Amino acid sequence: VQLVESGGGLVRARGSLRLSCAASGFTFNYYAIGWFRQAPGKEREGVSYIGSSSHETTWYADSVKGRFTISRDNAKNTMYLVMNNLKPEDTAVYYCWTITNSGRAYSGQGTQVTVSS
Fold it and tell me: Could you tell me how far CA 114 lies from the centroid of its own chain?
């Protein structure tokens, strides 16, 4: 299983970014996949997830609800996170994750998002 995040960067407050997570090594459309983030000195925080292709239920943390949108393109084995109206408190390393049938969780190397005020 390999997950590769991209799309992070430096953006001003109220700006937007789109993160991508390219997946390989497993049957992508079978599994839920999501994002978590970790800021320096803070605990890991779940951001969002989307269910498997059979029922693409979505969930968002209250802190990002209404600003972030998660989606998946099963033909491209890629998940996206569109982040609008970014705030300085969104600054963190963003990781994508999935859990396969084995019960093991996987995540990528992360992509840095920095929001300046």
Answer: 15
